[in-house]
Amino acid sequence: MDKIYAGSRLKQLRQERGLNQAELAQALGLSASYVNQIEHDVRPVTVPVLLKVTEVFGIDPTFVSRDSNSRLIGEVREVLTDPEIRLDPGRVEEMIRVAADHPALAHVLVDLHTRLRNVREAEVFSGHSNAAPQALPHEEVRDFFYAHRNYFDSIDTACEQIACEMGHSGMPGGLADRLTDRLFHHGITTTVAPQPTGFLHRFDRATNQIILTAGLSEGQRAFRLAAELALVELSGLVNDQLDSHHFSAPGARPLALKGLASYAAAATIMPYRDFLARADGCGYDIEQLEAMTGLNYETVAHRLSTLQRPGREGVPFTFVRVDRAGNMSKRQSATGLHLGRAGGTCPLWNVYKTFTNPGEIMRQFTRMPDGGSYLWISRTVRHHRSSFAEPGKIFAVGLGCEARHAHRTVYATGLDFTDPAAATPIGPGCRTCSRTDCSQRAFPAVGQTITVDPHTSRVAPY
Q: pTM of whole model > 0.85?
């Protein structure tokens, strides 16, 4: 096998676990000087060391491979092919290799490019060139969740303990009442009453009362009550997570707070160990898990993308939610898959095809330009509509995992993951996709030299 220089990734792992070099060396059975040399890329990570790292820390071996940084590398590629960077196309791959070996530097590069893009957009929308850049709250929150691989151990573990204290093991029925009782101990009462159009629940701070709109299912009521309970009982843990991340956009921190409350609600209603056992037992069959938990398809699918507790990992999924126009309103991932930040996503991706087959689960074996292969599971979902006059919402929800994990799911049945020709070639979006033979390409990739012969026609437009 090729030599693996993964000093920065080993250092990242050590710091995440709160260890110094001597403590890491002791855990791995190595000398402190040897660990120091690995972290400074003087020595490669050997196979025995790699196996020891995966054994001690309960992580996937790809943590120290370039594949583990595939999303970051995809973002770096997007930066380097931006026309305003004006980098010689012949040097892109060289720069990407540097970024792969130094992810901290790559993160800085991506962050600077994000700020540059925000400046551009501010100028366009304001009409003058000295407009202040505006970071986008949802992008900052998405990056916050990605930095944690969509898993927050302290919150998840605490929620599992809360579920245990209430005698809840993840089966439907009675949980909303138990949550109501627990909230009452904090002086918070719960009632069901008509709400203004568009509201599903609200917390009235003046009366210390949670008001749930009529018509919510048992699972929907429990989810909202569990989110409010988390904001009361886990405020310290939640704020610790938020304090660990720098949010610059106005509204980003409250949005992240709401996201963590929803995360905690799912972790309470679907406690980790019980839910993972059920998921493994049924091959990650989302419809079976819906029936077991009494929750809807989207909520269950999203919970499947959070099962990354060290030593007890589920299948690492990427979760996405898109609308008919291609807007991606949710994108959270336990994998390294990169989807473009700018421009549309790939029209060959079956997440969009599900709109023509509403309610039907569709599968797709795909291959990205970097050679990574994935299994995608997609289905449409409809969101709550409280009255005929209120417009409903329909989305497509997708779950994707690397093909090497597909055998753990029922969705792999009948698909041949050993045949490269069986995979649909998709990409992160036309702007950064390197494929030159795609008939669906909407415009050429950034940095690609366009050669046009008016006397020749081809299926692929560029």
A: no
Q: How far apart are CA 25 and CA 31, in angstroms?
A: 6
**For residue 168, which of 235, 234, 223, 102 has the smallest C-alpha distance?**
223
CATH 1.10.260.40-classified regions of the chain? 7-64
Q: Which CATH number fits domain 315-462: 1.10.10, 3.30.450, 1.10.760, 3.30.70?
A: 3.30.450
> How does DSSP classify residue 411?
G
Question: Tokens standing for 154?
Answer: 């302290």
Tell me which residue of 189, 194, 190, 191 sits closest to 214, measured CA to CA.
194
Mean pLDDT throughout 324-332? 83
Summarised one tens digit per residue, pLDDT across range 44-77 is 778 788 888 877 776 666 555 544 566 677 777 7
CA–CA distance, 57 with 49 (Å, rounded to integer):
12
Fold of 7-64: 434 Repressor (Amino-terminal Domain) (1.10.260)
Contact between residue 459 and residue 440 where contact means Cβ atoms under 8 Å apart: no
Q: List Cα–Cα distances, 236 to 116, 144, 243, 252, in angstroms.
A: 35, 18, 10, 18
Strand partners, 321: 330, 397
Q: Which residues contact 235 (CB under 8 A, 6 or more apart)?
A: none
Residue 200 and residue 211 in contact, taking contact as beta carbons nearer than 8 Å? no
Q: Write down the CATH number for the domain with range 135-310.
A: 1.10.10.2910
Instruction: State the DSSP code for 450.
Output: P
